[in-house]
Amino acid sequence: MEKEIEYKNIPLFEGISEENLTKLLYCINSFKREYEKGETIILEKDKVPYIGIVLSGSVHMLKNDIWGNSTLLSYVTEGELFGENFAVMKIPESSVTFQAASHTKVLFLAASKIIHTCENACSFHAQIAENMFNLLGQKSISFMNKIEIISKENIRGKLLAYISMLAQQQESKYVITPLSRTQLADYLSVNRSAMTRELSKMRDEGIIDFDRDTFIIK
Fold first, then answer.
1. How far is it, in rounded angstroms, from Cα 204 to Cα 207?
2. How many other C-beta atoms can be found within 10 angstroms of the C-beta atom of residue 56?
3. Which of 77, 183, 208, 215 fits 179 for a cystine, CB–CB 3.0-4.6 Å?
């Protein structure tokens, strides 16, 4: 089982002391839930009054079409938020499905308690609201990165753009992807077999190397 991230290392809680964090978690009606791999956390059309934080494991954002086909839009890993875009809307209804990609622990926070200052006007409320808007901005950049990746003309271009994004995020030439080969093909909107062949060609040409979930940039 994955080790659970410490609350003090969660970006949403940046700048909040451990003492105030204890008060905050009580004030914003926080609670934990665990999910098994493949279990639905939020279903499309569900009301989303809570923001989720992945404490361990990972969560996939999926979009289903009318024929039942599912597309991996994005993924959320340890310490990251999900559902916040919908929870802060006037009508907090999800337009996607969130599913546990592995055994996953989630901390839920009442969105209304974050975006509205409590009657005590606690200083940490202003801090968590500021943190959340910052993370919303980062999430927008993440979606723009996804658009840039899948807009590449061919599979190699998409792979290189994805690996480049990971390298910049992880600040390393040894980059780890949280996606399996099947999931990566879905994320890039390409055929898995064709993607696997292209990865082998790129390795033969000395552009990259790879071992399971790790890519090495040559």
1. 8
2. 18
3. 183
d(CA 93, CA 87): 7
Q: Do 128 and 13 touch, CB atoms closer than 8 A?
A: yes
Cα Rg for the chain, rounded, in angstroms?
A: 19
In this structure, are residues 69 and 132 in contact, taking their beta carbons and an 8 Å threshold? no
184: DSSP letter: H
pLDDT tens digits for 160-190?
999 999 999 999 999 999 999 999 999 999 9
Q: Which two tokens stand for residue 96?
A: 């996607």
List, for the chain, all residue ranges whose pLDDT scores fall below the cut of 50.
1
| Residues 6+ positions from 80 with CB-CB distance below 8 Å | 11, 53, 54
Alpha helices (runs of H) in the chain, residue ranges in sequence order: 18-27, 84-87, 111-115, 123-150, 155-170, 181-188, 192-204
Question: Please, is 11 exposed, middle or buried when counting C-beta atoms within 10 Å of its C-beta (0-12, 13-18, 19+)?
Answer: middle
pTM of the shown model: 0.85
In angstroms, rounded to a whole number, what is the distance separating the alpha carbons of residues 53 and 84? 10
Residue 32 CA to residue 99 CA, distance in Å, equals: 16
